[in-house]
Amino acid sequence: MQYFEVLGLAPRLTLDLKDLEKRFYAKSRELHPDRFARAPQAEQQRALELSSLLNDAYRTLREPVARAEYVLKNSGFDIGEQRSKDVPAELLEEVFELNMALEEADRPQIEAAGVRFEKLRAEIDQELATRFGQWDHAAESGTLAQIRGLLNRRRYIENLLRDVNVHLSN
Amino acid sequence: MSTFQIDFGGAPSKVVGIDLGTTNSLVAYMDLTGPRILGSIVPSVVAVRADGSFAVGEEARTLLLTAPDRAVYSAKRLMGRGVDDIQEELKLFPFHVSGGSESVIRLQVADKTMTPPEVGAQVLRKLKEQAEAELGEPISQAVVTVPAYFNDAQRQATKDAGRIAGLEVLRLVNEPTAAALAYGLDKRNEGTIAVYDLGGGTFDISILKLHDGIFEVLATNGDTHLGGDDIDNLLIRIALEDIASEWGHDVSGDQEAVQLLRRNVISAKEQLSFIPQTIIALDYQGRHYQRELTRELLEKLITPIVDRTLGPCRACLKDAGLAVEQIDEVVLVGGSTRIPLVRQAVRNLFKAEPHTELNPDEVVALGAAVQAGVLAGDVADTLLLDVTPLSLGIETMGGVVAKLIHRNSTIPASVTEQFTTSIDGQRNVLIHVLQGERELVKDCRSLARFELKDLPPLPAGLARIEVKFMIDANGILQVTARDARSGQETTVEVKPSYGLTDEQVEAMIMESITHAEEDFRERQVREARVEADNMLLAIEKAKQNDAWFALPEAEREEATRALNELLMVYHSDDHHLILAHIEKLNQATMSLAENMMNTAVQGALRGTKID
């Protein structure tokens, strides 16, 4: 997986962000186009490609969700679909209640829903961290499938939270 | 990876840093002692003299007062824009826009038509000359600064200006980032700084993280149409209304009056940064207008303008994921930050005393020189990691924009997307690229349409074309495409929505070279004629001298013949011909000159005055 390679890492879902930043800075000094401003055209182009790869890699890997999606995509999982159309079964009731509250512009209810969703998201993040560790220990496809499920739920909750916040800030 | 290059040329040529500003421009160079300004500040004004030649800088600014239709200023506001974009501007600036300005604005300046990059090129050429005079060598490479919030077209237009001026723009650097470099805040090793840059026409805010010489921009925001010009225009409008009611007639349509007033308003505004009150006055066509302006009133008037800078500052903090308390230092850039109210606003927002040690007019050029030093390899350890200010996306079904590269992504940045065909045997695919934060195409800025051409004819949906969108270190988009099945490069034809095409830029470069040749030839002819004038005058005088009559008949005839020949070629455009005949006449009158010299010597010995 190129993004890990360019930063000198083996594919891992759990990363030390301080170490990642240090690697990013060191590699930037080496690859940035500024270092090749007066080099022949071919070398300039190469620096451009490598440093954009480095930047894309750092931007992706420093965010746990984006990092996991990258690993999923490169392991043959399709992450594009199932955006936010299907309501995860266990959230049906929550979503129903939220919609009611939104319709009635019931601020305390909306706020309460926001708190619940944030708690749910925190739980998912907790579980994701566990699964990340599991995959890092033994890279099994089953773990990735579980991670994908978690990410889908997380994305769904994120969208709900966005709705909540839009309403609360209005 | 490093390569060894054989260097035949001795020391590599120098790279200068240029701040191409809305109001003023400067060039700087970094040597072992640090960055310094070369020559003087150049007002970004270009004028056409009565003889058709260009005046740039101070001279052009003076011409602006007496012949406003022969001069153009604040042209940076028009860089990379179309006529539809600048309707607001046209109400406030005396730009005379000619036809055919949809994708590139064409300005009428006296009898010439100029695009904004050509105006910029005139200023750049002047700066280049200044740098060459001071460094004593030809300069062909430069780092040029742009507002951080400039979009792709505005950046491309700035690069075009460089090319037209005969400068290779090695890098476009964002102005606030350059300012951070100039402050050398990297000496503090670690920290977070905010750069607040309010110039003549643009406002930028950037937040950077420093780490061992690396300047990592976390987020940037701004407004490309907010600056000191807005304050000037506000004051001019008020004064014009005053004048209309006092004099009983409106002078707002009279450019000469408006330009005089503009100069006086700017001067009053600048004074009020240092003294509590001043006057705005206008003497025009025998009439006199005068009003008092206090700093207090000025502050009341400009509060809405200053407040407009705060929204972008807050948005920038949010994008950087930082609270105000986490900002360690604040740097002020741009002439408008001399205004006490602006400083107060910054102090209030960031809860910190801003840095003002460096001249806010010079700091950007100095920073550009530091970056020039980095690119030339003279400055080790310093590295800029800048971001793209605006998200990049493509048009999808229903006029919706799909974001590909988000704003504040470190550049260079890239993304690869797959495209296919929707009709059997389709040979072309059109991709519409936009820049902006909004969801709909109509609310974003169209950058260009890229056409993938000569695709292999296949049933619908079978083609797999991988298109790579790359924003380079200058913040400019590059698009490449390849057929994912064959691995072959696909031809991409670019139709920029705004700006000059490559061919147009080439034509302008050629034109400036041809003109340079023309100008040079004309100068040579003029110089030859001046020499001929001197010669003819000397001969006329000599004919009054005894020495002329003392010449043998044949020599007198030959001299007369040579003289007539010179008169005949005098008006030719060939300076070689003129010079040849001057030389011939010179030869023919050699003994005459000697005789005259002898007579003069004898006369001098006798103590008589010889004319």
Describe the structure in brief:
The complex is a heterodimer of chains A (170) and B (611). Chain A is mainly α and 170 residues long.
What does this structure look like?
Chain A is mainly α. Chain A folds into two domains: 2-62, Helix Hairpins; 89-169. Chain A is built from seven helices and no strands. In chain A, helix 4 (64-74) crosses helix 7 (141-169) and helix 5 (92-103) runs antiparallel to helix 6. The longest helix of chain A is centred in the C-terminal third of the chain and has 31 residues, at 107-137. Chain A is elongated and about 65 Å long. In chain B, strand 1 and strand 2 form a beta hairpin. The longest helix of chain B is centred in the C-terminal third of the chain and has 41 residues, at 502-542. The N and C termini of chain B lie far apart (78 Å). Chain A binds chain B through residues 25, 28-29, 32-34, 37-40, 43, 48-49, 51-53, 55-56, 58-59, and chain B through 1, 3, 5, 12, 170-171, 211-212, 214, 216, 371, 374-377, 383-385, 409-415, 470-473.
Please report the number of helical segments of chain B. 16
Classify the secondary structure makeup of chain B into a structural class: alpha+beta
Rough outline of chain A: elongated
Portion in beta strands of chain B: 25-35%
Name of the CATH homologous superfamily of the largest domain in chain B: ATPase, nucleotide binding domain
The helix content of chain A is over 70%
CATH topology description of the largest domain in chain B: Nucleotidyltransferase, domain 5
| CATH architecture level-2 label of the largest domain in chain B | 2-Layer Sandwich
What fraction of residues of chain A sit in β-strands? under 5%
Total number of distinct structural domains of chain B: 4
Profile the largest sheet of chain B.
Answer: 8 strands, antiparallel
Which whole number gives the mean pLDDT of chain B? 87
Q: Mean of the pLDDT scores of chain A?
A: 88
> Which strand order does the major sheet of chain B show?
19-18-21-22-25-24-23-20
Q: What is the CATH class of the largest domain in chain B?
A: Alpha Beta
Inertia-based shape of chain B: globular
Low-confidence stretches of chain A: none
